[in-house]
Amino acid sequence: MENTSGVGVLDKTALILGALEAGPTTLAGLVATTGLARPTAHRLAVALERHRLVTRDIEGRFALGPRLGELSAAVGEDRLLAAAEPVLTRLRDATGENAQLYRRQGEEHICVASVEGLLGLRHTVPVGVTLPMKVGSAAQILLAWEEPERLYRGLRGARFTATTLSRVRRRGWAQSAGEREPNPASVSAPVRDPSNRVVAAVSVSGPIERLTLHPGAHLSQAVVEAAARLTDALCRP
């Protein structure tokens, strides 16, 4: 075994993940590629599956899991935050409304960047505030492109439905009005990393009196454009 660390279980885990880098494979394929004993390969692959570092495809083969993408996205967080302020400021100037950037954190989503709006009746969300994944347009964005099992688990108790999320995926943005509290409305769009995975949500928010019950009708284009600029910043070589 090359490049060993001296910690056997970690070295074997690295072998399994390296074998899956080439694509999904069966247990027999893992054994053949890694040289590990079949019981060992199975035990480690199943353990990695529990932590979402490994998953199964529709044929039951082992494959790299979604947690790896989440960790990769976290590595790029500094780059995302560095690009966020000018993009959110431009979005705020274009709409007059509060602009925020959210990332998912377990069963909540957290505001990681925020720019206060220009208009009266502001509804600012400070950086560091965590909100449930059950309400709001940002939560819809951060859930809509999840793997099916996690998506349907996230819908339990949510103020939006699977049909809502299907509509979000189709049009590329989400809206909400009075979901979290009676007054605020918001529109959000997805920010993607180089692997096309949704890693954040850009939002504008304000009172329903100003944004109306259908805020996407006049704000979605500006929000989608802002999300595209942040996606470009993440994907730029």
UniProtKB/TrEMBL annotation:
IclR-ED domain sequence ranges: 67-236
Alphabetical UniProt keywords: DNA-binding, Transcription, Transcription regulation
Gene Ontology annotations of biological process type: negative regulation of DNA-templated transcription
Region ranges (Disordered): 171-192
Residues in HTH iclR-type domain copies: 7-66
Cited Pfam families: HTH_IclR, IclR_C
GO MF term set: DNA binding; DNA-binding transcription factor activity
Superkingdom in the source lineage: Bacteria
Cited Gene3D superfamilies: 3.30.450.40, Winged helix-like DNA-binding domain superfamily/Winged helix DNA-binding domain (1.10.10.10)
InterPro entries: GAF-like_dom_sf, HTH_MetabolicPath_Reg, Tscrpt_reg_IclR_C, Tscrpt_reg_IclR_N, WH-like_DNA-bd_sf, WH_DNA-bd_sf
SMART domains linked to this entry: HTH_ICLR
PANTHER family assigned to the protein according to its UniProt record, in alphabetical order: HELIX-TURN-HELIX TRANSCRIPTIONAL REGULATOR, ICLR FAMILY, TRANSCRIPTIONAL REGULATORY PROTEIN
Name recorded for this polypeptide: IclR family transcriptional regulator
